[in-house]
Amino acid sequence: YFFPCSLFHLSLPLSLSSCLSLSVSQIPGSSQSMKKTIGHRGVETNTGETTYKKTTSSALKGAIQLGITHTVGSLSQKAERDVLMQDFVVVESIFFPSEGSNLTPAHHYSDFRFKTYAPIAFRYFRELFGIRPDDYLYSLCNDGLIELSNSGASGSLFYVSSDDEFIIKTVQHKEAEFLQKLLPGYFMNLNQNKRTLLPKFYGLYCIQAGGKNIRLVVMNNLLPRVVHMHHKYDMKGSTYKRRASAKERDKTFPTFKDLDFIQDLPDGLLLETDNYNALSKTIQRDCLLLQSFKIMDYSLLVGIHNLEQASRERERGGRQMGDSGGSEGAVTPDQRRPQAQKSLYCTAMESIQGEARGKGALESEDHMGGIPARNSKGERLLVFIGIIDILQSYRFIKKLEHSWKALVHDGDTVSVHRPGFYAERFQQFMCNTVFKKIPCKTAVCVWIRGRLGIVPLVPLFTPSFCSGMQSGRPDLVPRTPPLAGGSGDAEANFSTSSLGSTGLTTSSPLLQ
Fold first, then answer.
1. How far is Cα 355 from Cα 489, in angstroms, rounded to an integer?
2. What is the pTM of this model?
């Protein structure tokens, strides 16, 4: 029987890195002086540059941009039509010799081949999300791609486009193969339902040299670099070893896990009722879809921007937003492309509402597509979320991994589990522990105007939490108005305050 050594790396002399390492041929920019880190991702000892399958990051970025430039250009010459089932299995290939050809330009890299999977289908999907070919090309190829250094333990490389629009991630052969099989049903559902937190895949490519392949997917970017993420969490709804390691905590932009969230925010993230209900329904629908595809081991990526903390940082002249934060290589708003085209249905708010803003519209600096929330202190937050790592099917290897972990720990708490149980646990954790309804959305009092003046009759909401939600604004707390003489009939007046994305607003003359 074959047992993957990743399951036994604690007991066998083989490390996970050694288990995943493969012998590959070089393509330009590669080097023998390389220190292996994890999976196919390594670091050159001489220059410190990241490598993937012994290919330097700079060489890989150049090949990506050359390939996408050609494939988008050639695709524009093909007439638009409906997507057919056979379009999902089409693979187009183009050879890029270093000296150039009648179809490709000369370049300073070694020869490589660029493959494009399901080009007609992905073109349709990009159009579905409002991405024009010239915008797609401009975002990915006009300026250099930015490598994200905090790419996690998957062994993948991540690049973000300079305009914050797209993420490019390297994937393994099995993940790319699974995505190909998933495409028809996944996008059929996505075409019918815009309200989803699932990733949007805009392209699947492969760079091949010497018979070796580097596969890449292009996706929507969940965490805009222009927004400082004060906290970032990757959560699965599991408690088994779901705490950030000491090495992760020492990073400039650490990604925390489930147990860290429970410790940091025991009261969860508090949402307005409408937003909470929309988010809960979206998570439930997405979990059912993933379960139907027998997908598990996915995560919810949560980025939290604290508006109060950001305001305090600006007031004391501290770090600039672009230098301070939870998103690497962050840029200030004035550095963004003036007429930035954003993908439709891709912000956190659009994902749970199923509504998109007009193309070309920029989010305000106060919102940027985040979901307004509060913490237990009443501080205003913007939450950016999305479901990631969905290309894990419950195959034999995963079943084996769960069985092994269940022998040494409670099987119901480990991250790897059968899809049905995983979906239910994920949904329960996100909707009951991570996100909660604001316990006191409004401070409402019924007032009676009588002969003795105006006095409060029935305070409908009076928990101490309400005063905390005012964020130091006691003037917003309902209080008894001065006595006023006057006759007569009883008159009820309702005083309300609502929680918006930019703060509390009042709508009653009684709140002075």
1. 46
2. 0.72
Residue 124: φ, ψ to 5°: -65, -40
Domain assignment present for 391: yes
- For residue 496, give its domain range: 445-506
Those residues with Cβ within 8 angstroms of residue 389's Cβ, 6 or more apart along the chain or in another chain:
154, 297, 298, 299
Please indicate, yes or no, whether residues 115 and 215 belong to a single structural domain of this protein.
Answer: yes
Q: How many CA atoms lie within 13 A of 174 on its CB side?
A: 10
CA 476 to chain centre: 35
| Overall number of domains in the chain | 3
In a domain, 2, yes or no: no
The beta strand positions in 282-441, using DSSP E, are 299-306, 371-374, 380-388, 435-437
- Exposure of 79 in the CB half-sphere (CA atoms within 13 A): 2
Place of tokens 């596969």: 215
Residue with the two structure tokens 């998933």: 182
Q: Single out the residue in 420, 437, 454 at which a domain terminates.
A: 437
pLDDT tens string for the chain (512 positions)? 344 444 334 333 434 333 333 333 344 444 444 455 677 778 877 777 888 887 888 889 999 999 999 999 899 888 888 889 999 999 999 999 888 888 888 888 888 899 999 999 999 889 888 899 999 999 999 899 999 876 666 678 899 998 889 999 999 999 999 999 999 988 788 778 888 999 999 999 999 876 779 999 999 999 988 888 999 999 998 888 889 988 888 888 889 999 999 999 999 999 999 999 999 999 999 999 999 888 988 999 999 999 999 988 888 875 444 444 445 544 443 344 434 446 788 888 988 987 775 444 444 445 678 999 999 999 999 999 999 999 876 554 444 444 444 444 444 544 455 788 999 999 999 999 999 998 754 434 333 444 444 444 444 443 444 444 444 443 343 444 444 444 444 433 333 333 343 343 333 333 33
